[in-house]
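[INFO] parsing input record for Protein kinase domain-containing protein
[DEBUG] input buffer:
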Amino acid sequence: MLSGISKHLFGAYPALLLLVVLAGHQSCSARKNSTVYCAPSSCGNIHNISYPFRLSTDLNSCGNQKYELTCENNRPALYLKALYLNETVKYYVQAIDYSNFTIRLVDADVQKDDCFSIPRHSLTNDYLSYNWDYYLSYYTSTFVFMSCPNPILISPSYNIVDASSCKNGSTLFNSTSNISSPSSQNYSYVFIAYAHSYDDYWRDIQDLCHVNLMYPASFTFDQPTNETTIISYIDVHDSILYGFDLSWSWACCDFLKENRCKLDKADLSMYCDVGLSASPIQFATGYLTICLNFLVVWPLNKFSRADYWIAYERSRQSSYLEFNYHKNGNYTTKTKTISNSDALSILIVLLITLLVLIGIYHILLFICGFPCLITLLVYTWRRRHLSMFGNIEEFLQSHDHNLTLIRYSYSEIKKITHGFNDKLGEGGYGSVYKGKLRSGRFAAVKILRKEKANGQEFINEVATIGRIHHCNVVQLIGFTVEGSKRALIYEFMPNGSLEKYIFSRQGCIPLSNQKIYEISLGVARGIEYLHEGCDMQILHFDIKPHNILLDENFTPKVSDFGLAKLYPTNNSVVSLTMARGTMGYMAPELFYKSIGGVSYKADVYSFGMLLMEMVGRRKNLNALADHSSQMYFPSWIYDQVNEGRDILEDQATEQEKNTIKKMTIVALWCIQLKPIDRPSMHRVVQMLEADIESLQIPPKPFLVPQQTSNDDRINVVNPTSLRDPSNVCSIDSSYQFGR
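[DEBUG] output buffer:
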């Protein structure tokens, strides 16, 4: 890890720093070569417009584009784009002084003999951050125009001027003024903030008044006045009308080698941060501080009003590194000198630059990496689902000659179900709707959920009942596969599932014992066909009352082949990676390997548990039974049969009693603990059809093995292979294919 960090810190980032310095050097060289000498221009009373200034009508090679003036109505004008504003502000040029590198400007909105004409926008060094080519002198004072809800003390010593004298007591910032303020603030004042002399009184009144405008004063207000001097608002307006000075000395610092401004070493040290005597590393340090301000201040200019936050200054006497920061959110800023040592200053700047570049690197990495991560996740998701759809299509194509099913489009499915209007039920693998085919035949349409399994439910159903036909197996008529939309169309079973008839529920129609027997025999024949009637044995793995559907004549049909598996008929034992089925109907060998291998005998066990519930008209396991001995029904009924007691009530006929006893004995044989002790489904059918006298009572079945270990157990953690039994009785919920 440390080697990786070192590689980042001392590999890529120093190279990036070198590129930044070289880019700055190339930029300076390009600017120097692009400037040529031109004759001075003139506009109005300004007759010596020369480098770095130029008129917009001058040749492109003349002057510096950053210092371009326009001549409007015979008056030279300069447009500045202030920070925080989306517009430029127009100023008229009063004078240009090439000896001290200043230009005197006046806001175009200010009119003579009209004290209401004041600038519309504030102007301080903070606002000039967008135009680094100009800056106000360190000694420039500021006029602060305020509106106050209450009158404040007027005193020359406090530098406060009453602005209401502009017009007979009316407020300066009224509805006609360009400066807006709350209507309740009726007292207007101008605070003269002398250069870097903001006192405690100003900090007090700025909390009481609303600041409307901050504007630089002329040089006549550079120093505080005496206490005996009375300043009127007319003096303030005259100062604004006279204009303020902006320095443009940085234009000279852009061309140090050429020295177009004819600066000597003393002037270079005074007006430029780094003079000709600066070493390359000092020049690079000063340049890096400018880059740091560009990278940090400009992106955060909505949250910070400073024009810089770090500066490396060098004069004839010394060099120092300083930070600029705000205090209490005021317009004023505080400067903190960090180091007076060249070596320490350079080291600090390099470290800060390195940290900023690392931060920018990680921000860019996140900005670029996050969309890539989202793209990867979407790609993975789509690939998984496309793979699932591909598996289904591959299966359908490979078994096309064996399938006699109709493939419907999804639009046809919507027509068949009348827009999915009649919902029969809902299960874990999808919802079932009643529909009507074009032939007039009713059908049950199961819409498979997109998120369930990996298409195996669909493949299992089509691969099993899609190519067989038996009167006791539900018929699959057709299917739909369109992208993520999958559906299966079955024959319609109007009487729903067997579950609601064998469990006592309000509104359920009771079935006679003879009908129960006929249904059990039909189910047995259906399972026998699955095991022995096809070229491949079909193991259902989910035989239960809910999956036995009844047609209009109460003929039973085995349904829901979502967990079914196909195996060769000669396979006596099959391989499973995990248990599958519904708790309460699953064979013990699905949990315990020592009992025996998994085979078609697992379906026999499930049928035996189903048969028990049909006999008792109750769940096999009932914690609310009247007697503790009846909690596990197979154990209780075994004792009844073994002791020769009648299972049914006295009013039942002898034939009914024999039929129920026969079903009970068959069920007890089917639920024997070891698979080898259970009969095949062919033998089960024979036993159900035989007389009661020919049947022997089997040994008492155990619920679980008497001795087990953790290594003996099979994995049962897959939730898609285990299903919970349902007690719901209504037709709507009982008609569910797969749950």
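[INFO] The longest helix spans residues 342-398.
[INFO] shutting down worker
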